[in-house]
Design a protein that fits this description.
Blueprint: E1 6-11, E2 14-19, H1 31-45, E3 51-56, H2 67-72, H3 89-103, H4 105-108, E4 113-117, E5 120-122, H5 124-130, E6 134-138, E7 142-144, H6 158-163, H7 165-174, E8 177-179, H8 180-186, E9 191-193, H9 198-210, H10 214-230, H11 233-247, H12 251-263, H13 265-272
Parallel strand pairs: 2-3, 3-4, 4-6, 5-7, 6-9
Antiparallel strand pairs: 1-2, 7-8
Helix pairs in contact: 1-3, 3-11, 12-13
């Protein structure tokens, strides 16, 4: 299969999926979620593959959805991330639910998946990383979901399942970015190593996994995953995906969109993160 947003390679029982939009920090656009799912399914169908590694080309893993492009656009119909009022929440849900399920192919895969994170896995990039079974980070790499301050909710909702309620609330409510060292200390990442040692750290885990029979890997992964499925993971994701659309259409969400159109995304983010109250009464709607 020919991919446009990623590269797919196999060697020595390992399939490597490389997010490949380095000029945009591997920002997520319409094709990428579908292609991630297709690549995972291709690896699942390959009897020679035992392990799947996901990484990013260029300076980082993934900078998330291209929010600069979405937030600064003023056209309607939802292509800018927000609909004109009154809005139809089912349209937001349908689009983001499909993306969430595409990312969750990494979770559902019959084979272990490893996210190899350098630079940053931010916003939607953290969604991709946290849908993997294992997360290995460079010590200086960063991970977090800044849009949870205004204009977004992480739809796979994996933070709570990986961290527990208190740490998940801290990261989701503040939108803080943490580095690889802190992520490993919290148990979010399996390991954090100097960036020069990242490939070797991933290879060490791959070496232990690829010698295990595929059927054994599948059974043990399904046992762990089923425990989380029984906790209501799918229901939690449905709520998170619905709220993600709501977040873009609250008074504050509309303010953020309009402010980005007016002064640019970077300035709107600086105001969002300044600690000053957001004033939704300034909205034109």
């Amino acid at each position: 299969m020919a991919y446009e947003s990623l590269l797919y390679d196999t060697a020595d029982r390992v399939a490597t999926i490389t997010l490949n939009r380095p000029e945009r920090f591997n920002a997520i656009e319409q094709r990428m979620p579908r292609e991630i799912r297709a690549a995972v399914e291709q690896a699942d169908a390959d009897p020679d593959v035992h392990v799947i590694v996901v990484k990013g080309a260029g300076p980082g893993f993934c900078g998330g959805y291209d929010l600069k492009r979405f937030a600064e656009r003023s056209d309607g119909g939802g292509s800018s991330g927000s609909q004109e009022m009154p809005w139809d929440p089912t349209l937001d849900f349908a689009g983001m639910w499909r993306n969430t399920q595409d990312f969750m192919a990494l979770w559902r895969s019959r084979k272990p998946t490893i996210a190899q994170v350098h630079g940053a896995a931010v916003a939607g990039g953290s969604d991709i990383a946290l849908c993997c079974d294992f997360l290995i980070m460079a010590e200086t790499a960063r991970i977090g979901y800044p849009p949870s301050r205004v204009w977004g909710v992480p739809t796979p909702a994996m933070w709570v399942y990986r961290l527990g309620p208190q740490a998940a609330k801290r990261l989701m409510m503040t939108g803080d970015l943490i580095d690889g060292r802190e992520a490993a200390a919290m148990g979010l990442a399996l390991r954090a190593v100097p960036e020069a040692e990242l490939e070797a750290a991933v290879e060490a885990l791959v070496t232990r996994l690829r010698g295990v029979p595929r059927n054994q890997l599948m059974m043990t992964k399904m046992v762990v995953n089923q425990a989380y499925e029984n906790m209501g993971l799918a229901t939690t994701q449905m709520l998170a995906t619905f709220f993600d659309g709501v977040a873009r259409h609250t008074p504050e969400g509309v303010w953020f969109r309009e402010r980005a159109e007016e002064v640019g995304f970077k300035q709107a983010v600086a105001e969002r993160d300044s600690g000053d109250p957001i004033a939704p009464h300034t909205s034109k709607r």
